[in-house]
Amino acid sequence: MSAYARLERRFARIADIQGALAVLSWDREAMMPAGGAEARAEQMATLSELAHDGLIAADTGDLLAAAEAEASGLNPWQSANLREMQREHRRATAVDPALVGAMARATSKAVMVWRDARPAADFKALAPALAEVLRLTGEQASALGSALELAPYDALLDGYEPGLRGAEVDAILLPLADFLPDFLAEVEQAQAPARPRPGPFPVAQQQALGRLLMARLGFDFSHGRLDESAHPFCGGIADDVRITARYDEADAASGLMAILHETGHALYSAGLPKDWRRQPVGQDRGMALHESQSLLIEMQVCRSRPFMTYLAPLLRQHFGATGADFAPDALYRQAIRVERGFIRVDADEVTYPLHVVLRYRLERALLAGDLAVADLPGAWRDGMQELLGITPPDDRLGCLQDIHWPIGAIGYFPCYTLGAVLAAQLFQAATAAEPAILPGIEQGDFAPLLGWLRRSVHGHGSRYELPELVRLATGQELALQPFLDHLQARYLS
Amino acid sequence: MSAYARLERRFARIADIQGALAVLSWDREAMMPAGGAEARAEQMATLSELAHDGLIAADTGDLLAAAEAEASGLNPWQSANLREMQREHRRATAVDPALVGAMARATSKAVMVWRDARPAADFKALAPALAEVLRLTGEQASALGSALELAPYDALLDGYEPGLRGAEVDAILLPLADFLPDFLAEVEQAQAPARPRPGPFPVAQQQALGRLLMARLGFDFSHGRLDESAHPFCGGIADDVRITARYDEADAASGLMAILHETGHALYSAGLPKDWRRQPVGQDRGMALHESQSLLIEMQVCRSRPFMTYLAPLLRQHFGATGADFAPDALYRQAIRVERGFIRVDADEVTYPLHVVLRYRLERALLAGDLAVADLPGAWRDGMQELLGITPPDDRLGCLQDIHWPIGAIGYFPCYTLGAVLAAQLFQAATAAEPAILPGIEQGDFAPLLGWLRRSVHGHGSRYELPELVRLATGQELALQPFLDHLQARYLS
């Protein structure tokens, strides 16, 4: 057997372990009783170690070197697969096992403290544990950086979206930080006052409608499930995608839009190349591209005017919702309402990037040592005031709201806004290439859109790095302009 | 660190993998969409191999030898743990790792085929996959048999209930095969005619009552769940027990009794010694003892006259069930009604052992090569006619009804009847030792019973082998007589 074939075998086993972890993780959030937490943590730690052991094993390195020597015999998919194997191996071996262990302990502790500190708005309680996580993340970033010849922050970014660099993030986020505050003020002035639509919207009906829309969008229930959890997410594996929702009887829109968002993630997972299911090249390209797929479905498609034409009669059927508030135009105006708020996950698409800019600035400063952990709450308040013109009354609504930093996820936040920008660019290219997409949305026929996404994005898996994938799909370089055009068209015309 | 301490560490990791497998297996039956089957089979095969790898690793054998030499320093629990480690190691090293993986894949496939073949009564569809499972099971039995110096069938039995041999099974099943057909005829003549109690009994109410009874019996919902699956079972791990049920709106009793049965299993799991959770000695003693715990709860406790006194008002509350048919005596007469039927899991305690005798004969013949898979349906019909005097009209009601053979569980069926026999013996001992048990049942107070079971059975884990556990708990050897006494007292007096 060739070295490459042996590597495929090894990585298939690693993928099995990661697939098992994905189910265990879904179960933990959606099914597991509280008393199962301790045993589950042990199970997941052991499986994570086993997957890591497979990656860093000495003979994995030997096999990779031997496969490089055979590389001329590989087809393009296999070559890309080998490149991804090497990427995973290089990242896994760059960090000392002792540091991996220290990170696991430090983040476990920080999360535990964070769970109590957040509702209590007690940043001081979190500060020492967070400082330790940041210190170790800095060490990790340096180790990865020297192994990969990247700046420390870039080395972390690269873990979430391969090939993404701070320079590209700057090129998107800095103009947005300039543009959005004034734009936001203009949109606020132009939009009609909010009209709350009183419920109740029974949960069972929300679920039924959610399932119907999922199926229409292309979610295959023979390869996935919809369940409930405290925070909606998309988990599982490509052939068994598990999405979750949460419901509020007083507000059907938020639960429904969360389902549609997760459905975008799910369609991406399910559309990954079937022939490469258990190989690195068969996995999603990264967090920014993943987020582009959820935001394309939620923001570009399902908060659009044509979608509301399709949705309005369904709301009548499911909730008996009639009257002017449930006419397509009213639904659309409500779906694109903009409002300054403290909480990122509740933000609309105009304010969301400003939340990301704030976090991006702060996490870069924290990692570089230019901002002390003790000064984070003040810097957060100043940043919110500058970018969004509001100041959170406490740290619960401020720098304690996200789990990302306590789990050491530095470099993750920019992917959200890169995803929004990519979504606009991809949707623009899709509708230009396929004239049936826009009329289809109005009729609940999403097949033309899904077809384009399957061909242009999903089916490539990790065969291309992000910049090349964007070029192939859109004929252009990654660009901010389509997102700006979209904002202009949706909010000010 | 001592060799023994290093073994504890290693077996804890193996227990983590097995715990993960238990969740994946529960998910497969209760949650997984059909399209996830293939990937799940791969995941479970890989994890089974990893657990197996840990057991068979060369240094596991070395550590076991070294720990033997230190054994004088171990306390009784540690010594028993070491004995169980050795048992697992011996069984695992007897079978080639490739065969372990092949079994996992073949059984996953057979289960998937069985799920379609059973409702379609299409044995031919299952036959090739089943033949493959049986072929591999035969290889496994031979390998185990030569390593353990046991006959092939005994080697499989020993995997389900350590120390149990075909000779002991014969000593229980052969007298029952002689005794029961005539006894059954006598009971049928003596019992009052059936009085069907028309439903519907809404599923939600059946679930609610099931949960209430589970909680009363001692099931802790912060450490477990109740869900649905095609075939009720108890899975998960001690700290997170997952039981499943199935419901029939026309018949509340069958769903409810299945829940109570699985609750018996669950109480055993949850009552295993907390200090030994991730060690071999902390696991259940075997399937026969496990089944004794479910049958003790279902047959000895919940189909008793005192239990019906407790249950009657609950049926009124949940289903508005009133009138003579729902009086305690009528409920009791109905709960102990005996009826020849095709389906084992619906069988009463008089006919159930005859279903087991049939399967015991057939699986011994299949394993020995005396019966071809293609001839199984005919042999099944003949055996049913001989033992129960009825012939199933199709294979759905015949040899396709059970999941056991598709999952390669040969040697498992006898444990059900060994369990029934043990349940009678243990319950006799319990009520003799604790006078509060019987009056407690009438009042829905199961604490005295649970206390005795925790002390005498559950809390021992695998510290003792079965014969010694029976002696400690009852003061007697394993015996058929208490079961015969129980049948006589319940059905003919």
Helices and strands in order, then pairings?
Two copies of one chain form a homodimer.
Chain A (H helix, E strand, L loop, with lengths): L2 H28 L6 H20 L1 H12 L6 H19 L2 H21 L5 H26 L3 H9 L5 H25 L12 H15 L6 E5 L5 E4 L2 E6 L6 H20 L15 H16 L2 H15 L8 H8 L16 H17 L7 H13 L24 H21 L3 H6 L4 H10 L9 H9 L6 H11 L2
Parallel strand pairs in A: 1-3
Antiparallel strand pairs in A: 2-3
Quaternary form: homodimer
Helix content of chain A: 55-70%
Q: Which class best fits the helix and strand makeup of chain A?
A: mainly alpha
Distance between the termini of chain A: 62 Å
**Number of helices in the DSSP assignment of chain A:** 20
Average pLDDT rating of chain A: 96
The largest β sheet of chain A comes out as:
3 strands, mixed
Unreliable spans of chain A: none
What is the compact description of this entry?
2 copies of one chain form a homodimer. With 493 residues, chain A is mainly α. Helices cover 65% and strands 3% of the residues of chain A.
Can you walk through the features of this model?
- The structure is a homodimer of 493-residue chains.
- The first copy, chain A, has 20 helices and 3 strands.
- With 493 residues, chain A is mainly alpha-helical.
- Chain A has a domain of 94 residues.
- Chain A has a 3-stranded mixed β-sheet, with helices on both faces.
- In chain A, α9 packs across α12, α10 crosses α11 and α14 crosses α16.
- Chain A is globular and about 70 Å long.
- The first copy, chain A, starts with a helix and ends with a helix.
- Chains A and B meet through α1 and α2 of A and α1 and α2 of B.
